[in-house]
From TrEMBL:
Protein name per Swiss-Prot or TrEMBL: Plasmid pRiA4b ORF-3 family protein
Domain of life: Bacteria
Domain Plasmid pRiA4b Orf3-like, residue spans: 2-149
InterPro entries: MM3350-like_sf (IPR024047), Plasmid_pRiA4b_Orf3-like (IPR012912)
Originating species: Rhodococcus globerulus
Length: 418
């Protein structure tokens, strides 16, 4: 197939192959990927070969149908295959994106290859860059090009086949295993595009967010709650009396080593900010499970409540993650959980964190590029928690190889599915 953007000269076009049984909802994702759009606006297909008395048939997205219902000339794009929309060489169908901006594309069927195994969608060639997402349609795009001609910030002649194919591969994987519909993470993901954050979307494809939890459920629950339950039970009754300096008592460190199998190097300095105990208390306070009152660490009403009902702590943790107040903390936290769900290594995690936050428009206060210290500060709460429970584990031998346990990946997947 060949797709060309209408009313734009010189032409912006792509040539690509797709299996004949691809439905139009998946073809929409492939078109977005090969062209370079960000899937930020509504779309529809318009047939030139099929029509009713009201005019040409239109194939529309399922969410539009569920919201507005069908019209006489409308059909669900997930119910129509490409070989039903175009049946012979030379046939074509129109793809309209962002109707207000009047971006219209024409898709021509150029060749049918028969008697061969189905191959994955692939971009075969093309020319020129996709216009910026909100450049205002063909007329606005011409004005945009004239206005920025001297800046060199946008190259209208740029087209990289490998980049387009990487986007197609990710698009196909996401169609096979998409984020859970109507989840907060799905809404978050709509703010980005494959082309603005390719590594992040590749991680989404690896994360298999629609997958199950099978035999890992009990392991996830124990891993996520064991240390917190120990602290909450230790604070039952009258609470934990702190030292004069406000630190946890030394005998609590010995108890933690015995009952939680902690490394002594992390628990000996019980009152120090780097100790495992201090991290545990900080996490519990962030989760609103404990607080300090007159030199004593006591349970909050929520802390007492989660101890009273089996499974309540687990549910509270899942629903509260990612920890952190404000848009920045929440967005950074979701990307962190994505890197865990995808099984990324430490170096890959850093790349995806920086890419994703930059694509969302976050930067340092002085406008410089984000670094490791920046994103780690943004996700300090959830990162402390995930390291504390052993869901994120440093690999001292090779930072390019993940050492995170499988139950941690499943836990992150569950957090992202809510």
């Amino acid at each position: 197939m060949r797709i060309e953007l209408d009313c734009v000269a010189p032409p912006i076009w792509r040539r690509f192959s797709v299996p004949s049984n691809v439905e139009l909802d998946q073809l929409h994702s492939i078109v977005q990927a090969v062209m370079g759009w960000g899937d930020q606006h509504a779309h529809q297909w318009v047939s030139v070969h099929h029509s009713t008395s009201n005019g040409p048939d239109r194939y529309i997205a399922r969410e539009v149908i569920e919201r507005d219902g069908y019209q006489e000339d409308e059909f669900g794009e997930d119910e129509v295959r490409i070989d039903e929309a175009v049946t012979g060489v030379g046939d074509y169908v129109r793809y309209e994106y962002n109707v207000r901006a009047r971006w219209s594309h024409t898709l021509f069927l150029e060749q049918i290859v028969e008697d061969q195994p189905m191959s994955a969608p692939s971009c075969l060639g093309g020319a020129r860059a996709c216009p910026p997402e909100d450049s205002g349609g063909p007329v606005g795009y011409r004005e945009f090009l004239n206005a920025q001609a001297s800046t060199g910030l946008f190259d209208p002649e740029r087209f990289v086949l490998t980049v387009s194919n990487a986007a197609v591969t990710t698009s196909v994987a996401l169609h096979r295993s998409p984020p859970v519909g109507s989840s907060l993470f799905e809404k978050f993901l709509r703010r980005l595009s494959v082309h603005s954050a390719p590594k992040l979307f590749a991680a989404v494809a690896k994360a298999e967010l629609s997958g199950g939890y099978d035999n890992y459920f009990e392991t996830m629950c124990e891993g996520a709650t064991r240390q917190l339950l120990w602290l909450l039970n230790s604070a039952r009754g009258g609470g934990i009396v702190l030292t004069a300096s406000g630190s946890l008592p030394p005998d609590l460190g010995a108890s933690a080593r015995d009952e939680l199998d902690w490394d002594s190097e992390w628990t000996d300095a019980a009152g120090g900010s780097d100790s495992q105990l201090a991290v545990l208390v900080e996490v519990a306070k962030t989760l609103r499970l404990v607080r300090k009152l007159r030199g004593t660490l006591i349970l909050t009403r929520l802390g007492a409540s989660v101890l009273a009902y089996e499974g309540e702590l687990w549910r509270h943790i899942v629903m509260t993650m990612p920890l952190g107040k404000g848009e920045l903390a929440q967005e950074a936290g979701r990307i962190l959980f994505l890197t865990l769900a995808a099984g990324l290594s430490e170096s890959e995690r850093s790349e995806v964190m920086i890419e994703g936050l930059t694509a969302l428009g976050w930067s340092t206060t002085d406008g410089t590029l984000l670094g490791d210290d920046d994103w780690m500060w943004m996700v300090r709460g959830p990162l402390l928690y995930l390291r504390m429970i052993g869901a994120i584990v440093s690999n001292p031998l090779d930072q390019h190889v993940s050492a995170d346990p499988e139950w941690g990946r499943r836990f992150a997947r569950m957090v992202l599915s809510k």
